[in-house]
Amino acid sequence: MEGILYKTPAPAAWGTGHATGTRRPKRVSQAEWITRTVPELAIIGRHLFDRVRDLKAKRATPARKTRASRTTKLLAGFLECGACGGGFGEVNHKGWLQCSWRRDRGDRVCQSTLRVPTAAVEACVLNAIREQILTPENVEYAAERALAEIAKARAASDPAAIRKELDAFMVERNVLIDAHIKGLTDPRESEPRLKAQLERRHELERRLAAAEAEVTPWDPVALRPVIAAALREIHTALEGDDTARRDALRALFGPDPLRVYPDARRGSGRKGR
Fold first, then answer.
1. Which of 233, 183, 82 is nearest to 97 (CA)?
2. What's the pTM value of the predicted model, to 2 decimals?
3. 3 CB-near residues (< 8 Å, 6+ apart)
4. Which domain range does residue 166 map to?
5. Which of 23, 47, 108, 200 is at a distance of 20 to 30 A from 76, taking alpha carbons?
């Protein structure tokens, strides 16, 4: 720099504190600043300053992409290492998948050295969904089994007994809520109890709804058009953009990830639930 730029408050920028009577500086606009350039106080000359600035600009590396700007991979969060249970994800966004625990914690945590191309795994999973999982025959079989399980559970339940249990529970819960509102209980004890009671209430309401629900009789002829429409919707989502495809996979897989195991015969990985 050739000089130092400094700023001092304008004369009218001083005021008096109401409580102590002492003078205090007040915030003023930039237009009221008094500035002076003092070249003789420069640490280095302008020529050297410009050279250093240009060298710094040339050597600067491009800013790394933030996590938010990176493209989310199709199977990110859906895969799990079959050897240790750790996440199975892409390595430094270079197009290869491997166990994240093996990469970050070493072979003491996970012995799996499996590395597979991201594109190959994505194609394998999508092909399996289209050709082996979401077929009309498989979905029809799953629907039949689900309806049978619902009918079995309903036959074993007693709606009247569940409703009676729910009514008694609500009386107990209302007493605790009333005491909590009036300050008759210790919040450190009543708040966890209220939270647990809320979960219990939801459980009883779900049981009652399931016990009172009407079970659709198994009619494969009537359900086949419904199944076909649902399959078309899912297959369309799997052919859509990244968000639609990930939403479709999340609906299919639920909270359970696909486990990836080494396949000694083929030198690659196989996925299973």
1. 82
2. 0.50
3. 37, 38, 39, 40, 41, 42
4. 136-224
5. 108
